[in-house]
Each structure stands twice: as structure tokens, then as C-alpha cells.
Amino acid sequence: MTSNVVASPPAPDVPALSVDAARLLGRIEKFASIGRNAAGGIEREGFSDADREARAELIREAEAAGLAVGVDAAGNILIRRPEGTACTERPTLLIGSHLDTVVNGGRLDGTYGVLAALEVLQTVLESGVEPAHEPVAVAFANEEGARFPQPFWGSKVLVGRLAELPEEPLAHDGTPLRDALARVGGDLDALGTAVWPQGSVAAYLELHVEQGPVLESSGDSIGVVTGITGRTVLTVVVRGEAGHAGTTPMEMRRDPLAAAARILLAVEGLAQEQQLCRVATVGRLDIRPNSPNTIAEEVQLTVDLRDGNPVRLELAEQAVRNLVATVAQERRLEIDVEVGTRTEPAQADRTLRDAIADSAVELGHRYQLLPSGAGHDAQIVAEIAPMGMIFVPSIGGVSHVPEEDTKSGDLVAGADVLLRTALRL
Ligand code: GLV
Ligand code: MN
Ligand code: MN
Fold first, then answer.
1. Average pLDDT over residues 133-156
2. What is the torsion angle, in degrees rounded to the nearest 10, for the CA atoms of residue 399, residue 402, residue 405 and residue 408?
3. Containing domain of residue 363, as a range?
4. Is 375 in the pocket of ligand 1 (CB under 6 A)?
5. Which of 170, 264, 278, 341 is the residue whose CA sits 20 to 30 A from 407?
6. Atom of ligand 1 nearest to the CA of 151
7. pLDDT tens track for 213-230
8. Which atom, in ligand 1's list, is nearest to the CA of 374?
């Protein structure tokens, strides 16, 4: 990976605009209070009450800025310049990210990119500059899939991947998405109206925190993303036989939790010892009835596999399936594997990469090229449009935890690079 130091003056043909740093940082602070728990983490799972509050706040902020706001059938929030200012003849530049978080997550993952996109539109509107591409900001609904396990929900609908979404999506606890979606202005029966056809987006840009240690350790303030990892999420359902923890002899047990433990460690081994895929994680266990003196009846565990190579990802999934079949046979259990989501790796567009890198250099920021190990809506939108992503450093390299943070100067630098990239296209 190369670090690039900088010196060149701004290119003369790109308007020299900057974001309003105080406004951006103030909004980030404000959104960090929505859904904050006692530990300082953010609990804003997609379509939860806190998510609805954040969405309402975004709409208020955008409207107060004089922008036009709409919500599509999937619950995506779309922000445009108002009629009379927006030029629909121009090619569309979509800029976005998500407002929802994981359970006990951080303040920047997703929200930073949405607020920076808002900042780009507001700055362009206020400046009177006429960009060659019409910027449209989007807050994608339920990117994380924390409560409703359909990650990339909003972006998948936008690109038309409706067939792979459940007809009646449910939350982990069985709550139907239908009502939750209606409460934010969406409509499960009208998802087709939220689909954007091939060619309708000239380019998609997403600004995000890196969520890893690379930029911080190199000292570069901007990352130009080369590509985004592929990801397969499976739910393994292990069914055994419930029983009394004190009276059921060991040899008579069909304990799904002990089997789940075996599967969990083997999944770790797929990435760690066998190196079949880059990373493998069991992040969620649901145990029924989850009682200390009862042998469990059913256990569900999620398996999250990631790799930049789709073939390796397939092999890792097959290894999980083989492993599960062995455990089922050895322990006389019934084990099913359900596919939660399969997301292909995606490459960033060369032209957008260069535009981001040039913008960083012209603004005096050091950048480096790097891949993304986290998933992003950008990899879904890549199916219908060229995609580019900008990263800023994560303090301590951590994310999906309350400690997730980035220096103010880096947050502003990232937003300025986003703005400049939008203006130079
Ligand atoms: C999305 O946040 C992911 O898990 O990579
Ligand atoms: Mn995330
Ligand atoms: Mn994110």
C-alpha cells in the first residue's frame, strides 16, 4: 500500500468549496445522542424507535436546510435539491450510507456518511454552484440487519434484488417488518416502486469510517477504497431434546447447545487454522429455553463468513455445511442451515478512485489505497452504478462498539474530499 504526500494546489476547474465543519460536527454530536445507552453505545437497530427518531431528525435537518425529502417504499430517505434548483436532466450522483446501527454500536458507522452527504447537498445549494452531476443523498434503511435480519435491505430494494428478500420479513423475535416499515412511511407491497433501473445512477459515493487500524497506523487521513469484501451469513438451527439438567444421564442427552459450541469453535478454525476464508464469526446465539437447569431444546447461531474471493467464500460455506452434517450425525440432532444473506465482493470504479485520490491530494491530505473488510451499501449499489468509497481513520481501529470514534479533523477532511469529488465529476 502506498502513502501519498501532497503538495499540489487546487485544480482550477473544481469550485473551491468546503463543508461547514461546525455544522457537520454538531450534527454528528446530535445524532450520537439518539439511541444512546447507559454504556455510551448507540442502539439504533433498523426500524426501531430510536432509528425512527434519527430518521425524523435527518428529515427535519434537511428540510430546514431548504432541501426536498422523500421516503421510498423500502424506507430509504432520499434528499434532493428543491425544485427549481435541482436539475433532473443531469446525471445523478447518489451519495449515501445508513443511520441504523448494530446493538451497542458506535456513533459514526453509517451516520457519518449520511450526514456528510447532507452536508454536500446543503453546501452546494447554499453556494449556488452548478455541478455537472445532480447530487442526491440517501440514508439506506436497515443496512446492518441487527433486529430485522435482512442486512442491506434498503440498497437491495433500490437495485431491484427483490427476489432474494423474504416476502414477509420478520425480526429475530418474530415481529413482522410490514408494520415497522409502514411506520416509517414505507410499503412492503410497493417495493417495486423503489427500484432504480440500470443506468439511472451515474455514480455512487459513500464516505465511511475505516472500522479497522490501517489508516491510523499509517498516519494517512484518507483511504481510497479499492474493493469491498464478500460476505455470507448463515443461520444454523440446532434442534435437540430439552430435559432436566439433574436427572438426564449424559449418554441419553441430545444437547443442541453443546453441539452449537462445537460448531462455533470449528467455524473459528475455518478462518484461523484452515484459512479457508479471511474471517469467520459466530456473533449471535439464541438459546431456547435458555435456563440454567434445563438442557436446551433449540439453539440458533449465526455464522458470518467474509472473503474478497467469491470462490473461497463458497468453499467456506460448504465447509460449514459439512461440519454441521457431521455434528448432526455424531450427536443425533437435527441441524438446518439457512442462508441469511449472500453479498458478493465488489470493486470500486477506477475513475471514481482517481477522482477521490486527486481530490485528497488537492486538499492537502495524505491518502492510501485499501480494501474494505466491512460490508457497505456501496457493494450493493455497485450492481447498477460505478461505486467509489472514501475512508477516514478509526481511533484504535475499532468499530461496532461504543468506543468507535474518529478525530474531528479527519471527519471534516473526509467530508471535504467527498464534496470535492462530487464537484469534480
Ligand atoms: C456491516 O456493517 C458489516 O457487518 O460489515
Ligand atoms: Mn456496521
Ligand atoms: Mn456502515
1. 97
2. 150
3. 21-228+346-424
4. yes
5. 278
6. 1
7. 999 999 999 999 999 999
8. 5
Residue 110 Cα to ligand 2 midpoint, Å, equals 7
Model pTM greater than 0.85? Answer: yes
- Do 182 and 85 share a structural domain? yes
pLDDT band at 1, cuts 50/70/90? Answer: very low
CA 97 to centroid of ligand 3, rounded, Å: 7
Residue 2: the pLDDT is 46
Single residue among 290, 317, 343 that ends a domain in this structure: 343
- Specify whether 413 is located in the same domain as 328: no
Neighbours of 406 (CB within 10 A): 25
- What's the 334 CA to ligand 2 centre distance in angstroms? 32
* Angstrom distance (rounded) from CA 195 to CA 145: 20
Per the structure, the count of domains in the chain is 2
Ligand 1 proximity of 380 Cβ (cutoff 6 Å): no
Residue 173 belongs to domain with CATH number: 3.40.630.10
Ligand 3 mean position, distance from CA 174 (Å): 25
d(CA 19, CA 408): 13
If you average pLDDT over residues 346-375, what whole number do you get? 98
DSSP E strand boundaries for 99-244: 134-140, 203-209, 222-228, 230-239, 243-244
**Count of positions (residues) in the chain:** 425
Give the position, in ligand 1's atom list, of the atom nearest the Cα of 110.
2
